[in-house]
């Protein structure tokens, strides 16, 4: 879930933690589009009069080429294989009908109108990091927005094209000592991340990525461009802050509040596996209520038959001395850890958490697809002894995947659950269950680990860690905000043009 996969980063950085090298980072390769081949429904046009009429029309690719200025790729076009590529190679066999590399917002509008007219399933692709492969779709139209990558930095805010990845955003803003809170994976697209949430090492200080969104430009199913903000199309603006990528249209630009990016203190820590239960217990008791200047991640890392690892890392807006004092409650309850502290420039911290500290910018931003499986849960209260043991047991299961705990609280939880579409504002932490590979082995470990912890977690899940096997996904992802999201979906996409297996359905 970085240019290196999340698992590789965890192991690689875990091995180097004592030397003060980067530890892995947060779950950040979130959603980026809609519709995959895994569900037949994704390839069917809407069952409406308009949809049925569109279904009778044969898609005219030549006509599409005439109405867009950007490149149009089909199977017979050079570059098609590279253009349709997405990050999770478990879905590499999903082949779209056509890919449009949009050169402008007008191209996005034309592509959406074309898809609606012919009843062709449509999705957006920016970073292509959708966990469930929803950045592509079988037999459909993929609108690639990566050429919409302009970044204009103004006073207190920045206009960021939806085609930018996180490395472009971080590096451009860091040149002006600024940042926007976001994830750790450099090749994740800003669009999918921001639309679904956006958890990162600055989140408890500055909030989720969506909390910095002041406006968003969205092309809706009718081909119209909406400049959505608090005063215009405010319902669409609300929905785009946590309602998930791919549900309401194709985002083309964001206006983001910018924040100071000073030097920060950081720490990496490790415990022996025999002390993992104490470490996790101490972290769950204290991390969510510590100073909002500190964001931490607690990781239980499987070893595929070897000895698992217990790790922790964090970023602190302040000095090393202040960080040591802030961490004291955790370290007092879990005293066996080996802790390394440091201070770093902000962009170097971005590299550290991406697992590419000391590497070139090109290496950090290299796109390296791989196969992985993931699920998520939210933790509403600290685990009992039984819950802690269940977490240890899950990681010790044959196959050895990882449990990655992202610490909430701070600025994340200061926002009301209905203020944005992101409903998970009272949680202590989010767990990502993560394992590399494809096939039955990783899938079996993932299900077993998730079942192990089910009695100790809430029924909620994080939409940026989209799980195609999750039942009751709409309520799990959107909670009490789901009814309002369905009403907004009906208003802007009543025929469900932007449809995918885990999408929000229009209100009836």
Structure commentary:
The chain has 508 residues and is an alpha+beta fold. The protein has 3 domains: 6-29 and 262-474, Vanillyl-alcohol Oxidase, Chain A, domain 3; 40-144, Uridine Diphospho-n-acetylenolpyruvylglucosamine Reductase, domain 2 (2-Layer Sandwich), CATH 3.30.43.10; 151-260 and 479-492, Uridine Diphospho-n-acetylenolpyruvylglucosamine Reductase, domain 3 (2-Layer Sandwich), CATH 3.30.465. Helix content is 30%, strand content 20%. It contains 17 helices and 18 strands. The strands form 4 sheets. The protein has a 7-stranded antiparallel β-sheet, with helices on both faces. Strands 5-6-10-8-9 form a 5-stranded antiparallel β-sheet. A 4-stranded mixed β-sheet has the order 1-2-4-3, covered by helices on one side. The relative contact order is 0.16.
Mind sketching the topology for me?
Blueprint: H1 6-16, H2 49-55, H3 61-67, E1 71-73, H4 80-83, E2 98-101, H5 105-118, E3 122-125, E4 141-144, E5 151-153, E6 157-161, H6 166-174, E7 178-179, H7 190-196, H8 203-206, E8 213-219, E9 225-229, H9 234-240, E10 250-257, E11 259-260, E12 264-271, H10 276-286, E13 294-301, E14 309-316, H11 320-333, E15 338-344, H12 346-354, H13 361-364, E16 372-379, H14 385-396, E17 402-407, E18 429-436, H15 440-453, H16 473-478, H17 482-492
Parallel strand pairs: 2-4, 3-4
Antiparallel strand pairs: 1-2, 5-6, 6-10, 7-11, 8-9, 8-10, 12-14, 12-15, 13-14, 13-17, 16-18, 17-18
């Amino acid at each position: 879930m970085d240019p290196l996969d999340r698992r590789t980063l965890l192991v690689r950085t875990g091995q180097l933690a004592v030397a003060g090298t980067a530890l892995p980072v947060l779950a950040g390769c979130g959603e980026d589009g809609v519709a995959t081949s895994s569900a037949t429904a994704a390839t069917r046009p809407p069952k409406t009069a308009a949809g049925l009429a569109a279904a009778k029309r044969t898609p005219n690719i030549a006509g599409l080429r005439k109405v867009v200025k950007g490149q149009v790729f089909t199977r017979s076009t050079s570059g098609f294989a590279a253009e349709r590529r997405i990050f999770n190679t478990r879905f590499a066999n999903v082949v779209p009908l056509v890919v449009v590399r949009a050169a402008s917002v007008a191209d996005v509008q034309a592509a959406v109108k074309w898809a609606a007219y012919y009843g062709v399933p449509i999705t957006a692709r920016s970073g292509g990091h959708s966990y469930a492969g929803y950045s592509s779709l079988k037999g459909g139209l993929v609108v690639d927005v990566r050429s919409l990558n302009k970044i204009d930095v103004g006073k207190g805010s920045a206009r960021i094209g939806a085609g930018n990845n996180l490395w472009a955003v971080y590096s451009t803003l860091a040149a002006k000592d600024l940042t926007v809170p976001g994830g750790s994976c450099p090749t994740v697209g800003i669009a999918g991340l921001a639309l679904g949430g956006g958890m990162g090492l600055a989140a408890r200080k500055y909030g989720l990525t969506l909390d910095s969104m002041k406006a968003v430009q969205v092309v809706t199913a009718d081909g119209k461009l909406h400049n959505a903000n608090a005063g215009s199309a405010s319902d669409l603006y609300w929905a785009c802050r946590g309602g998930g990528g791919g549900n309401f249209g194709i985002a083309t630009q964001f206006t983001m509040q910018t924040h100071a990016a000073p030097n920060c203190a950081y720490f990496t820590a490790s415990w022996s596996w025999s002390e993992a239960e104490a470490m996790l217990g101490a972290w769950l008791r204290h991390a969510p209520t510590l100073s909002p200047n500190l964001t931490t991640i607690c990781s239980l890392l499987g070893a595929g038959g070897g000895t698992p690892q217990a790790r922790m890392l964090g970023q602190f807006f302040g000095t090393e001395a202040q960080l040591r004092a802030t961490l004291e409650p955790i370290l007092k309850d879990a005293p066996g850890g080996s802790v390394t502290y440091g201070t770093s420039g902000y962009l170097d911290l971005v590299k550290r958490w991406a697992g590419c500290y000391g590497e070139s910018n090109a290496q950090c931003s290299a796109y390296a697809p791989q196969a992985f499986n993931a699920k998520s849960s939210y933790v509403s209260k600290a685990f009992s002894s039984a819950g802690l043991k269940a977490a240890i047991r899950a990681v010790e299961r044959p196959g050895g995947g990882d449990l990655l705990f992202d610490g909430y609280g701070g600025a994340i939880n200061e926002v009301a659950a209905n203020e944005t579409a992101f409903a998970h504002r009272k949680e202590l932490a989010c767990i990502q269950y993560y394992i590399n590979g494809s096939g039955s082995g990783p899938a079996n470990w993932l299900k077993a680990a998730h079942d192990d912890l089910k009695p100790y977690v809430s029924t909620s899940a994080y939409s940026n860690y989209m799980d195609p096997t999750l039942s009751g996904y709409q309520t799990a992802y959107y909670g009490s905000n789901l009814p309002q999201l369905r009403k907004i979906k009906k208003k802007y996409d009543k025929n469900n043009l932007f449809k995918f297996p885990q999408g929000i359905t229009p209100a009836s």
